[in-house]
Amino acid sequence: MAYVVTEPCVGCKITYCAAACPVEAFREGKDYLVIDPDICINCNDCLRECPVNAIFPEDEVPVMWKDWIVLNAKESKKFPMINDLKKPLLDKDCNIKEL
């Protein structure tokens, strides 16, 4: 079961998670990231690095963001791979937690 990026990433797109991923499972959209479920190895590295609490194991995605499971699967086939740090968008109040 893969990890899933959810709505809190939109407008923030902080890439610590992508840089931490050992298998290059992250894909970059215009204003958010997704995880390719066919590549994710459930290592927890991204989960620990997400400062906006946007990443969940697939079976623990909150009900309000369940549609993000399908969105990650579909969009990960379209978006380019990202595995490095980039300047975050921070287009909204991202409620960043301490890492």
TrEMBL record:
One Gene Ontology molecular-function label: electron transfer activity
Domain 4Fe-4S ferredoxin-type, first and last residues per copy: 1-27, 31-60
Needed co-factor(s): [4Fe-4S] cluster; [3Fe-4S] cluster
Pfam families, alphabetized: Fer4_7 (PF12838)
Keywords for this protein: 4Fe-4S, Electron transport, Iron, Iron-sulfur, Metal-binding, Transport
SUPFAM superfamilies: 4Fe-4S ferredoxins
Function: Ferredoxins are iron-sulfur proteins that transfer electrons in a wide variety of metabolic reactions.
Entries under PANTHER family matching the protein: FERREDOXIN (PTHR42859:SF2), OXIDOREDUCTASE (PTHR42859)
Stated name of the protein: Ferredoxin
Originating species: Leptospira neocaledonica
